[in-house]
């Protein structure tokens, strides 16, 4: 049997991971990316142990260790610096692999370089924006334009098509033309990066505040840590009800300090100067927290969705990229024994992933593991000392553990997979 060859629409994190995973199993694939040149853009992301286990299988651990921070802990605080809950993460928590905090652009370049090295420079075709597809018999043909959408780039025919083209996926829109824009949470995010002296142990992640006003921060570059500094990714989050669902053009602006910094003026964490974090930022971007509703179906014939195109989610739980990595690894694993029937394989992939990730989307709308901050806000009467004791620690721990189980990175689930 001739091995099937595929088309991946989208050269982002998930599309590149899928290409590497399929190559490792002996399958050929071509990636078609909309932008003329892939650049190291974005800010910080987290790679949780289940995705790091997969990336280790792909031989990427040494490169990740060179540039990323091995996250040691995750802590939740109130806005006056009182601890709610703290837990070890990654190697410190007894996992076999680290949890990484990394600049999205750094991770993108690690994947891109690996694809070029292993699959060849011609495996990635840039300035090819996916436009539409036609399926006939045992083949599917994808049609492309240039980045602007004005010039035809012709078509490519293969055995299957994967849409890994992001939250505004053109392929998803073909399947669901009446879906409309992404769902706005009511929360606005200002995201930036600042180099300054380390906080806590220099490898920690924290969240402070509550659902109406929150700060999330974590270091993302090992190079800065080695110099005694921290290259800190931070997210300032504030509730702003609006009609953003009707105004997609407002979805990515340069952020201004005066729009949010004053809301944090009275914050005193003790171990981090919040105003200095904001004021010394190298750049600030403003955009809303958005996701998309879980879908009833991903796969149609020889075509399916993956990553944000299939399941864009709120960043609560720091789990979006990791779930896309799991999509890619699941699909590649199924190819080993199921490549002779691509429509069935795509259905099997969907069956393995869609319901699980749909539950995570909904859990993240309820703030995921960050719910512990709301629990304290609702119950605390002001009598706690240096640490909040108004909610029993066993209850907080169960919230954290339940989310790990749901997302698939509790130690028991990972141990079963590696056994």
Please name the defining characteristics of this protein.
13 helices, alpha/beta, FAD/NAD(P)-binding domain, five-stranded parallel β-sheet, eight-stranded mixed β-sheet, 419 residues, 19 strands, single chain, 26% strand
Overview of this protein structure:
With 419 residues, the protein is of the alpha/beta class. It has helices at residues 13-24, 49-57, 61-67, 104-119, 170-175, 222-226, 274-279, 308-311, 320-338, 342-365, 371-379, 393-407, 411-418; strands at 6-9, 29-32, 44-47, 69-70, 73-77, 83-88, 100-103, 124-125, 129-136, 139-145, 152-158, 160-163, 183-196, 204-210, 213-219, 230-239, 253-254, 283-291, 303-305. The chain has a domain at 6-50 and 62-70 and 102-181 and 293-365: FAD/NAD(P)-binding domain (3-Layer(bba) Sandwich). The protein is 33% helix and 26% strand. The strands form 4 sheets. It has an 8-stranded mixed sheet with strand order 6-5-14-15-16-13-18-17. The protein is globular and about 70 Å long. Mean pLDDT is 92; it is low at 245-251.
CATH class of the domain at 6-50 and 62-70 and 102-181 and 293-365: Alpha Beta
CATH names the topology of the domain at 6-50 and 62-70 and 102-181 and 293-365 as: FAD/NAD(P)-binding domain
Estimate the helix proportion, in percent: 25-40%
Oligomer: single chain
CATH superfamily of the domain at 6-50 and 62-70 and 102-181 and 293-365, please? FAD/NAD(P)-binding domain
Question: What is the 3D shape?
Answer: globular
Note the beta-strand portion. Answer: 25-35%
Structural class: alpha/beta
Radius of gyration: 22 Å
């Amino acid at each position: 049997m001739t091995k099937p060859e595929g088309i991946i629409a989208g050269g982002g994190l998930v599309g590149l991971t899928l290409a590497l995973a399929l190559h490792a199993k002996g399958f050929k694939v071509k990636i078609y990316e909309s932008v003329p040149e892939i650049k190291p853009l974005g800010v910080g992301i987290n790679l949780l142990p289940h995705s790091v286990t997969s990336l280790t299988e792909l031989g990427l651990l040494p490169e990740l260790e060179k540039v990323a921070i091995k996250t040691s802990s995750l802590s939740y605080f109130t806005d006056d610096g009182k601890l709610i809950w703290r837990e070890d993460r990654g190697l410190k928590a007894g996992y076999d692999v680290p949890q990484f905090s990394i600049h999205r652009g750094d991770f993108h370049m690690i994947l891109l370089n690996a694809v070029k090295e292993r699959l060849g420079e011609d495996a990635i075709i840039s300035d090819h924006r996916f436009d539409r597809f036609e399926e006939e018999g045992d083949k599917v043909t994808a049609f492309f334009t240039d980045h602007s959408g004005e010039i035809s780039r012709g078509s490519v025919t293969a055995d299957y098509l994967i849409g890994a083209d992001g939250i505004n996926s053109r392929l998803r829109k073909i399947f669901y033309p009446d879906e409309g824009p992404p769902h706005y949470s009511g929360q606005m995010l200002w995201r930036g990066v600042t180099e300054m002296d380390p906080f806590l142990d220099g490898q920690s992640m924290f969240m402070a505040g509550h659902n109406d006003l929150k700060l999330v921060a974590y270091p993302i570059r090992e190079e800065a840590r080695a110099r005694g500094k921290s290259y800190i990714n931070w997210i300032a989050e504030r509730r702003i009800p609006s009609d953003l669902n009707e105004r997609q053009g407002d979805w990515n602006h340069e952020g201004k300090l005066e729009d949010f910094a004053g809301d944090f003026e009275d914050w005193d964490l003790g171990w981090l100067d919040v105003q200095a974090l904001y004021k010394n930022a190298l750049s600030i971007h403003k955009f809303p927290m958005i996701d998309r509703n879980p879908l009833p179906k991903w796969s149609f014939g020889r075509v399916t969705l993956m990553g944000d195109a299939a399941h864009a989610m709120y960043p609560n739980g720091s789990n979006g990229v990791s779930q896309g990595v799991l999509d890619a690894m699941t699909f590649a694993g199924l190819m080993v024994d199921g490549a002779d029937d691509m429509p069935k394989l795509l259905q099997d992939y969907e069956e393995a992933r869609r319901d699980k990730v749909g539950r995570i989307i909904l859990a993240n709308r309820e703030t995921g593991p960050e719910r512990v901050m709301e629990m304290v806000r609702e119950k605390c009467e002001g009598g706690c000392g240096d640490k909040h004791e108004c909610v029993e620690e066993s209850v907080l721990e169960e919230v954290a553990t339940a989310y790990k189980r749901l997302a698939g990175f509790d130690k028991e689930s990972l141990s079963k997979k590696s056994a």
